[in-house]
Amino acid sequence: xxxxxxxxxxxxTTGQHPPFFYYIGLLILLICINALIAKVxxxxxxxxxxxxxxxxxxxxxxxxxxxxxxWGAIAAYGGCIIGAGLPGGIPLEVNLVWxxxxxxxxxxxxxAFRCLIADPALANRRDLIIVLLFCVLLNNLCxxxxxxxxxxxGGIIPWSGVVSTFFAWLLGxxxxxxxxxxxILYIFTxxxxxxxxxxxxxxx
Length: 204
Known about the structure:
69% helix
């Protein structure tokens, strides 16, 4: 109970949670947003099948997870399958595993913020450090490693291309997240957290 209260900064909503189907609607909306922006990025800045050197949607996926908990994390996975894997021509059996890269890239920040009880509005220097470590560096390191290796093991790219794919993925995502995530969180979290769909813990 004490943890729940600490996760509820000033200005956050209290009271009864919205009906479950509201969260389902939110999930569908987030998947659609993620998929649309992912497709634009993959088509416009393609590196290898399904990947982009300017994957701007990763910043939104992270922010959505910090605002909407596991709903945002699941939406990142679904958005990658539909918006990156399918347009990239990745076979479904590979796509379902490969798209977990986007899931890891948002799940790690979510776990860090919840377990370390950080404020997504970036109220202090500690919150900013957590963002830099878990929303920019470590999460994208995991995603790039998972994504490049599953493409190789799935026969999408040769082993000779794994290093270049890894670094293109990592550097592109790190730059996007460094530029966008802190600003979006700082500016918009105080607004979003007043909405009843804002998730304080994991699911509600």
